[in-house]
Request: fold
Amino acid sequence: MSETPLRVAEPSRWDDAPFRLPPLPFRGRARRALADCICLLGTTVAKAARVFRANRNAIVPQKILVVRRGGLGDLLTATPLLRALREHFPSSRVYVLTSKQAVPGLNGCPWVDEILEVPSSLKDWLPLLRRLRKERIDTAFILHRFFAASLMTLWARVPQRLGFSWKNHGFALTGSIPFTPARSQTLQIGELLTLLGKPAAALSIEFTVSEDAVRGAREVLEGWGFDPAKPLVGIHPGGGETAGSSDLARRWLPERFGRLADLLIQDRGIQVVMLQGPGDEPFVDEALKNMKARPLGIASGLPLGVFAALMKECDLVVVNDSGPMHIAAALKVPVVAIFGPTHPAYNSPRGGMHKVIWAGVPCSPCYNPEEYILGTRWNGKKVFKCWRATHECMSTITSEEVYDVVVRQIQVFENKPRREQTRNALSPNS
Reply:
């Protein structure tokens, strides 16, 4: 067993836990200094402009742009805001600007009228800005703290720009609320709606799964010999911003996922499916190499909808801090999430049906995305590495400890009606 006592709880209990930010390399310090200079200049210009500009009343949105770069999980944290915008402004047209890899997360979404992709090169930004100007968008919600995203909407001539005040990075905004990386980002994104005089958005995130995808997932399970009378647990050893790299970063050790699967299969007779998305192959392979038992199946090469529908059929999923964690939570599937460098309150799913495992070692949490971008490439790709090269926050957590948490969660609902009724009973809104 680990020497550091595990912390297992519903994530809201860790609100405002302090960060232990790593020291930045020289390049990172130089970039931070440059960003601070830009923000100081921008703040000075913005204050001077407000002196000569009459106070404006809030605009009733007719065309709304929501800016949310990042992966699929990042986009799903914005779904409560999108749902609330459609509820409060039903006649408005809603655009979402997001990364290419996140676009499938909005397929079939009833709250979005048009999806725009973040350009992959600098030369493609000018056509996008011209397009946004042509659309005459009147309101933008910028769900990032770093100044570049809000400055882009200023250049796109959006008159009402709403977002977060973080250090001096909000100088291009016309309205803002405070932001802290030690609280749920989903909760804080929903609170942006208060800038338009509306109540904060409900916390529940959503992901749309079609009936065809559900049928496809059930056919896959039937082909594996799935027994509906036994619990089904999905295990996802990959994911995270650094998928495809050899660095552990925000992932628990793959061999321990394998050991966990063995314990569930051999000690409890639980059916286990290995969940494998793009880039997860080496981590799933490593988990399988360390297994003695056979999983029910390996969910690889599936369309996103079928992959999500298969998770929806699970009684519980065990995941890293990753996109599949958000998908499972959006589908009301109980989650056991293993956190290391990320703040346990910031990115984790909320509600009593979910549990987060966090070792709470002295150097964790150390990963603040908005701070870390200063130490990475200018294209904004976050290639996070353990600054102490120990991965203590992940290696401290043992398979047996995670197994105990999973078993306790399954026991909560094993004597209740299967799946949907169980999730309704355990959902955060019940």
User: Anything to note?
Assistant: The longest helix spans residues 26-52.
